[in-house]
Amino acid sequence: DTGVSQDPRHKITKRGQNVTFRCDPISEHNRLYWYRQTLGQGPEFLTYFQNEAQLEKSRLLSDRFSAERPKGSFSTLEIQRTEQGDSAMYLCASSSGGREETQYFGPGTRLLVL
Amino acid sequence: AQSVAQPEDQVNVAEGNPLTVKCTYSVSGNPYLFWYVQYPNRGLQFLLKYITGDNLVKGSYGFEAEFNKSQTSFHLKKPSALVSDSALYFCAVRGGFKTIFGAGTRLFVKA
């Protein structure tokens, strides 16, 4: 399978706990994106990596959120001290860059904070 | 700043009839436009994109989209709808590295 994969697919946690999500992009893609999608809305941009460099972060990404892509391959998104408002679908996408780039999305991780 | 509007929350169409899902955009510079489809509890699947060239873009599963620069629109179309087309459709515009998505339009195709 050469698609984008995400793990876990579902996560239920209690408020105040930390959670970490993983994204494995398409192997030859050097760009990786994280989005958050809440019910009834389109995906909202969170952050973007070019290889291992995090080049942009949205204002949506509070200090409790951190993302890494240590070797320019897989990426992790960590949320510390989760709040109920963090409940959402977290989507990862990857692309090969360039003017005609197309982002390909993973299946997402659905987070529920109780 | 770029933005995307999908004016219809929901579109209902009978199987076999043509369908249109509307999208208008605002972007400085050349627009790079995309349509994605999302099935329940799944990520987004790429359907088609407009970068440059012909205003009519053909994509996956028989879908096509018409780019209209004067009306700043990029409507998604299909000549004959299938029940299996029922899903959530997102229009998106890219400016630089950032892609902005619309709120989505839910398509119901009735048998």
Helix content of chain B: under 10%
Task: Determine the mean pLDDT of chain A.
Answer: 93
Structural class of chain A: mainly beta
Please tell me what the overall shape of chain B is: globular
The whole-angstrom Rg of chain B is: 13 Å
* Stretches with pLDDT under 50, minimum 5 residues of chain A: none
- Which structural class is indicated by helix and strand composition of chain B? mainly beta
Describe the structure.
With 114 residues, chain A is mainly β. Chain A is 0% helix and 49% strand. Chain A has strands spanning 5-7, 10-13, 19-24, 31-37, 44-50, 53-57, 65-68, 75-79, 88-95, 104-105, 109-113. The mean pLDDT of chain A is 93. Chain B contains no helices and twelve strands. Chain B is globular. The model of chain B has no long low-confidence stretch (mean pLDDT 93). The A-B interface holds A 4, 6, 31, 33, 40-45, 48, 55-56, 91, 93, 99-108, 110 and B 4, 32, 34, 36, 41-46, 49, 51, 90, 92, 94, 97-104.
